[in-house]
Design goal:
globular, 526 residues, FAD/NAD(P)-binding domain, D-Amino Acid Oxidase, Chain A, domain 2, Helicase, Ruva Protein, domain 3, 13 helices
């Protein structure tokens, strides 16, 4: 495991609470500018909202109905930026929007898609086209007689949890200290410093920072109260649930389906063999850590899909469901579906007190712009940048993304040539997860046996070791549901065996680190 380190002067420039996409994005941007950065997450990175999205980088076509033009423009402009800096985990995706008589009229759909095509500076993504669903391959999976025409437009798909982890990895590579399974217990606010007390494995420690960023997502108001700050803007917790079922269609396009209640549901090709269906919008008042997809939500998604597709979707078809709580800015919208997906950055900078920045709302598509705005607000409280200039995160690739978007197959071919004992499906999966770093996952292995234990579905000890050492994985859940989605393929017994193996591997690494530290002390080394 990587050695943890802090700033030489004993005080960080920026301390961040929360290891979701916003916290990780701010950490990456700040570290790249030469600032000393600390981030703590009480569980695993991306363990809450940021791994429970619809997996889309999109402008939000439906937000045009609510006149959120600035949000849509910013989100649309980010699609190709994120595709460019992370082509291994961000991919263009064509969406089929069937027209259904009695719902939104065709002229409204055409107008909305025209605006969508031209609002965000689209360059590489193809534009909208009309479809004859009686002749197009997208038509047969749909109910005959109901859908005869439609439209096709572009957005992007993303591995949301890996986006978080790669931002954290890049932040760490640039000097940030990322601590998972560490809780911010309390904080003391002084004139120019926050002293943050942290709890980890029953022990307490303290760090100091010039500024504190509360990026704890659904817990942002709770954390602010614990810090003695009354948030001016309020959070509206909205639950969004998704289901995964065996593939409903074989082509590579997704569907955006209208419902009679005004909501929309996506049906997206997922992990080669499945279809992802979501999402719901319900106000949520429970503990965000305990949110699950309820029977009513699953039934709603099954009904929405069954109304559109030839093949009915039943609750017994669901192979996996997940639910997340979106911490939206409460703009007073009467319905959860209409609540703003925009973000609010609230800076508390009382005279004679170190500043606190609270992050409210936002969406995964605009996380990078949110980070830039956060650092712009904090600029006067931080030392002059000693590294890259503002805007660098949209130019320099995330780890593994150092290739052109159309070169993925070339990377796979190179990996197969250098590691001929790996089969094509395995190599393709590694490239889609790790990009140019896929070779690092395989290490120095020259045969399948040298990859170590095989846990199932091409997952090997070599890869799990990499995830422990480089991506903060500590449990089978971290590996199977956030660093990958191999949980869809491993049996419960295989997952349990992986958990045991990881526990033993972590103990061995801790023992090795302790022995190394003792040896350095005896030799008089730091």
């Amino acid at each position: 495991m990587a050695t943890e380190r802090g700033p030489a002067h004993g005080r960080y420039d920026v301390a961040i609470i929360g290891g979701g996409i916003n916290g990780a994005g701010i950490a990456r941007d700040a570290a790249g500018r030469g600032l000393s950065v600390f981030l703590c997450e009480q569980h695993d990175l991306a363990s809450a909202t940021s791994s429970r999205s619809t997996k889309l980088i999109h402008g939000g076509l439906r937000y045009l109905e609510h006149y959120r033009f600035r949000l849509v423009r910013e989100a649309l402009s980010e699609r190709e930026v994120l595709w460019r800096i992370a082509p291994h985990i961000v991919h263009p995706l064509r969406f089929v929007l069937p027209y259904q008589k009695g719902l939104r009229p065709a002229w409204m759909l055409r107008l909305g898609l025209f605006v969508y095509d031209h609002l965000g500076g689209r360059r590489r993504l193809p534009g909208t086209r009309s479809l004859d669903l009686t002749a197009d391959p997208a038509g047969p999976p749909l109910q005959a007689g109901i859908f005869t025409t439609g439209f096709e437009f572009s957005d992007c798909w993303v591995d949301d949890a890996r986006l978080v982890i790669l931002n954290a990895r890049d932040a760490a590579d640039r000097g940030a200290l990322i601590r998972t399974r560490v809780r911010a217990v309390s904080a003391e606010r002084h004139a120019d410093t926050w002293r943050l007390t942290l709890g980890c494995a029953g022990k307490l420690e303290t760090i100091a920072a010039r500024v504190l960023v509360n990026a704890s997502g659904p817990w942002v108001e709770e954390v602010d109260r614990e810090l003695g700050v009354q948030t001016k803007s309020h959070v509206r917790l909205v639950q969004g649930s998704h289901i995964v079922v065996p593939a409903l269609f074989t082509h590579e396009r997704a569907y955006l389906l209208q419902n009679s209640d005004g909501r929309i549901v996506f049906a997206i090709p997922y992990e080669q063999e499945f279809t992802l269906i979501g999402t719901t919008d319900l106000d949520y008042r429970g503990d965000p850590a305990q949110v699950v997809a309820g029977k009513e939500e699953i039934a709603y998604l099954c009904a929405a899909a069954s109304a559109a597709f030839v093949r009915p979707v039943r609750a017994c078809d669901v192979v996996w469901s997940y639910s997340g709580v979106r911490p939206l800015f409460d703009d007073g919208a009467s319905e959860a579906k209409a609540a703003s997906r925009d973000y609010v950055l609230e800076l508390d900078e009382k005279a004679g007190a170190a500043p606190l920045l609270s992050v409210i709302g936002g969406k995964i598509t605009t996380y990078r712009r949110l980070a830039e705005a956060a650092l712009a607000l904090l600029r006067r409280h931080l030392p002059a940048p000693r590294g890259l200039a503002a805007g660098w995160t949209g130019e320099i690739p995330l780890p593994g993304g150092e290739f052109e978007p159309d070169e993925g197959s070339l990377l796979t071919a190179r990996l197969l040539a250098s590691h001929p004992f790996v089969d094509a499906a395995h190599a393709e999966r590694l490239v889609r997860a790790y990009g140019t770093r896929a070779g690092r996952v395989l290490g120095q292995a020259r045969s399948a046996a040298q990859l170590g234990r095989h846990f199932g579905a091409t997952l090997t000890a070599a890869e799990v070791g990499y995830l422990i050492d480089q991506e903060w994985a500590r449990t089978a859940e971290d590996v199977l549901w956030r660093r990958s989605k191999l949980g869809l393929r491993l049996s419960p017994a295989e997952a349990a065996a992986l958990d045991v193996w990881m526990h033993e591997a972590l103990l061995q690494r801790v023992s090795a680190d302790l022995a190394r530290s003792a040896g350095n002390s005896e030799a008089g080394l730091p």
